Amino acid sequence: MNDGSRPKAISPKHVADAEWKCRTDLAAFYRIVAMLGWDEYIFTHISLRLPGPERHFLINPFGLLYEEVTASNLVRIDINGDVVGASDWPVNKAGFTIHSAIHEARDDAHCVIHTHTTAGMAIAQQPAGLLPTSFYSAMIVDRLSYHDFEGSVVSDGEKVRLVENLGTNNHLILRNHGLLACGADVAAAFSAILTLQRACEVQLAAQVGDEPLLTIGHDIRNAHRSALNKTVKDAPANDLSVIERAVFDAMVRKLDRLDPSYRQ
């Protein structure tokens, strides 16, 4: 393991353009999560599948804070969490287990993020889970999965159950544990975790009062999602990728103003 100095960098001239774009996007995602206060010291992960026939992925070097992640120090690994090539830093293989289960089962889940935010963990402890009571929860509550807590280490048997519970949804509450979201790319995964996180934050804030919360009915929730899908003029029906990329790119611009070192 590194002695505490910065990890050895991978030069962009030694990496294919497609991989470097993935590295830059994922490093930005890590920094955005840190900027929003969703990181958990050196723990939790965001993984991204690289293009190509190999089932290779990028993940954070274990031991670095999210704010220290850069495009060049992200580690390339295989589906088993083993390092591909050279790295000055190890990988938390146990932490990648949840991610590998989803990557292996879902060809559309190229990016997976798992968080331990206070709001997410608080809602994950509530028997009723996320309630259809806010703008944000109404967007996802009908397409939200749950997985019961089985301990901190994910066994092969639990991987099967986790994948079955997630199904085709992109949002998952790990009961007593935290949140998980996935998407076709970093923009989609960021949008998914942003919506889930905000829904949890709003519910937790609303529950401080003694009054019961207003529930949003199923028909209204459907109309709400349909309207949001038409937010961008001329975008394909039910295709949120334009919005997802716009939100992610806006956060990247903010990040660039504050600290563009993730691009190194």
Question: What's the arrangement of secondary structure elements?
Answer:
Elements: H1 17-35, E1 45-49, E2 56-59, E3 75-78, H2 93-105, E4 111-115, H3 118-124, H4 135-140, E5 144-147, H5 156-166, E6 171-174, E7 178-183, H6 186-206, H7 218-229, H8 241-258
Folded structure, characterized:
GO terms for molecular function: actin filament binding. Residues 24-204 form the Class II aldolase/adducin N-terminal domain. This is Class II aldolase/adducin family protein. With 264 residues, this protein is of the alpha+beta class. It has a single domain (12-263), classed as Class II aldolase/adducin N-terminal domain (L-fuculose-1-phosphate Aldolase, 3-Layer(aba) Sandwich), CATH 3.40.225.10. The chain is 41% helix and 12% strand. It is built from 8 helices and 7 strands; from the N terminus they run H-E-E-E-H-E-H-H-E-H-E-E-H-H-H. It has a 7-stranded mixed beta sheet with strand order 3-2-1-4-7-6-5, sandwiched between helices. Strand 1 (45-49) and strand 2 form a beta hairpin. Helix 1 packs across helix 8, helix 2 crosses helix 5 (156-166) and helix 6 (186-206) packs across helix 8. It is globular. The chain starts with 16 loop residues before the first helix and ends in a 6-residue tail after the last helix. Residues 1-7 have low confidence and may be disordered.
